[in-house]
Structure formats: C-alpha cells, structure tokens
Amino acid sequence: QVQLVESGGGLVQPGGSLRLSCAASGFIFSGYDMSWYRQAPGKERELVADITNTGGSTNLAESVKGRFTISRDNAKKTVYLEMNSLKPEDTAVYYCNVVLRPWRTAYWGQGTQVTVSS
Questions:
Q1: Mean pLDDT of the chain
Q2: Which pLDDT score, from 0 to 100, does residue 20 have?
Q3: What is the mean pLDDT of residues 47-76?
Q4: Helix, strand counts (H, E) of the chain
Q5: What is the mean pLDDT of residues 4-18?
Q6: Comparing C-alpha atoms, which of 6, 5, 8, 17 is closest to residue 85?
Q7: What whole-number distance in Å separates Cα of residue 27 and Cα of residue 18?
Q8: What per-residue string of b and e applies to 55-87 under the rule 16 or more CB within 10 Å gives b?
Q9: How confident is the model over 17-42, as pLDDT tens digits?
Q10: Are 55 and 72 in contact (CB under 8 A)?
C-alpha cells in the first residue's frame, strides 16, 4: 500500500524558513522520481519541484528558484523541500507526489499547510 506522509508545515513570518518532509512507503522509493506540488486557495495545484530517483537532477518552478531546494534520502525513503525567504504568496497546502509504473498511477500525500504571514 503506497503511503506518502508530509510534515513540517506551519505558520511563518515573511522571510522565514521551513523544511517539509515526505516519508514514503509501499513502493521502491529509490526507483522513482519524486515531486512537490502546492495548491493555494482558489488556485489550481502547481508543480513546485521535482527530483530524479538518484537525486542527481532537480527542477524548480521559476517562482521558487533561488529560495527552495528539493532533496532526498533514499535510505530514509524521504524527500525534503527546504524553503527559505518565504513570501506570503507561498501560502498553500504542499503535497508530495509520485507516479508509479507501469500504469503511471499518481499518488498523493494528505498535504501540509504552509502559511506565510506577519
């Protein structure tokens, strides 16, 4: 049974930092690319960052480049999103995502709320 469990969200002031974690189980973690998405109120879910299965390559949305970093620890079956210089527009529910072979089935965590406000 595939499970993705996010943690680390919270309320932070503008300019602050948070580190999100996503603990995975139920599939061969080291064999799959992983992604972080976010969804703000009234907006569509958007891709924030993704990382290849080995961690050798990452991609970040333009809106977070230079501020966010995605990483993973295959031994711990966990993917991270380090968020710095947070802005109010980063406020959203952040979701972990994996797409599994052979049917390209997408799995999502329950999400973790990030609120950036003074």
A1: 97
A2: 98
A3: 97
A4: 0, 11
A5: 98
A6: 17
A7: 27
A8: beeeebeeebeeebbbebeeeebbbbbebeebe
A9: 999 999 999 999 999 999 999 999 99
A10: yes
| Nearest C-alpha neighbor of 71 from the set 100, 34, 97 | 34
> Six-digit token pair at 107?
């799995």
What band does 15 get if pLDDT is binned at 50, 70 and 90?
Answer: very high
Contact present, 6 and 24 (Cβ < 8 Å): no
Whole-Å CA distances, 66 to 9, 70, 116 = 20, 11, 18
The arithmetic mean of pLDDT across residues 60-86, rounded, is: 98
Q: What share of the chain is helix, strand, coil (3-state, %, to 5)?
A: 5, 50, 45
Tokens read off for 116:
């950036």
The two three-digit tokens of residue 36, written as one number: 């972080």
* Amino acid found at 51: I
CA distance 60 to 69: 8
The predicted structure's pLDDT at residue 95: 98
Residue carrying the six token digits 């990483």: 71
